[in-house]
Amino acid sequence: MKNEISRRKAMMQIGSLSAAVLLNCENILAGNQQIMLQRNIPGTKEKLPVVGLGSWIQFDIGESPSEKEGLTEVLTNMNKLGGKVIDSSPMYGKAEQVIGDLTAGLDFNNNFFYATKVWTTGKQSGIDQMNGSFLKMRRKTMDLMQVHNLQDWQTHLKTLKGWKEEGKVRYVGITHYSASAHEQLEQIVKSKMVDFVQVNYSIKVRNAEKSLLKAAQDNGVAVIINEPFDSGSLFKIVKGKELPDWAAGYDIKSWAQYFLKYILANPAVNCVIPGTSDKKHLVDNMGAGYGKLTDEAGLKMMLKYIDTI
């Protein structure tokens, strides 16, 4: 849980007063904005809240009651603050099963937008794996099925095209975690074979800004962002550093919100999915979907400040 450890250490350096303000659902909901910012899935009238939840590492847990209770609190707070997207993959160990087991016990389980992936080679292997994901996550219909890291993507997209027509999946997507794949992702986006593209993007890894995000927007493809904290390395950079005074003018109350609001300022982004198993961090992350968006002047200040640390 490398990224979570880095974040915990960084949070300790920020100061107890600011941390106390961040980590409270009621404080977030007490503001003028009572609903998290939402953006339309292109070509539809369906809206997605802009902050969701990743499950890599954090949801790959055993039978510990304390771990399960903690994740249930994460999901409960996420729902309370208007988050919907839960993203998983067969690659993430037990995460799909844990998501299915935990959400089955929640009376608001249908409020979530369930996304997972196919991560194998061969048509039948892909079909078998995806059917297994339906069973593990306890879904009759999957909101979003994505091809993980481009693995045998042409084969799986053919299968998923048929499944979408049948109504077994609602949306089809493609993903990768590395900037080295952006060019290929862009070509797939332009082919209009997918409804979603999931890509890495952060204030320090900005390759997606070159052309991929614009291509997605121009071609009606929704965008989900992974690695928004660059595997936790961003928290190491700001360890012991105070937020700049001007950040409050953009409703930025923590470094996590600083990093997330930079991403969400791009109108091509539909949802960002930071992973966490900590309910306080979950509340903090969700807070990035509330308040002002950063304007062009603010983005320049954000980049200048972070690049000088």
UniProtKB/TrEMBL annotation:
InterPro entries: AKR2_Oxidoreductase (IPR053135), NAD(P)_OxRdtase_dom_sf (IPR036812), NADP_OxRdtase_dom (IPR023210). Pfam families: Aldo_ket_red. Residues 51-296 form the NADP-dependent oxidoreductase domain. CDD domains: AKR_PA4992-like (cd19095). It comes from the Bacteria. PANTHER family: D-THREO-ALDOSE 1-DEHYDROGENASE, NADP-DEPENDENT OXIDOREDUCTASE DOMAIN-CONTAINING PROTEIN. This is Aldo/keto reductase.
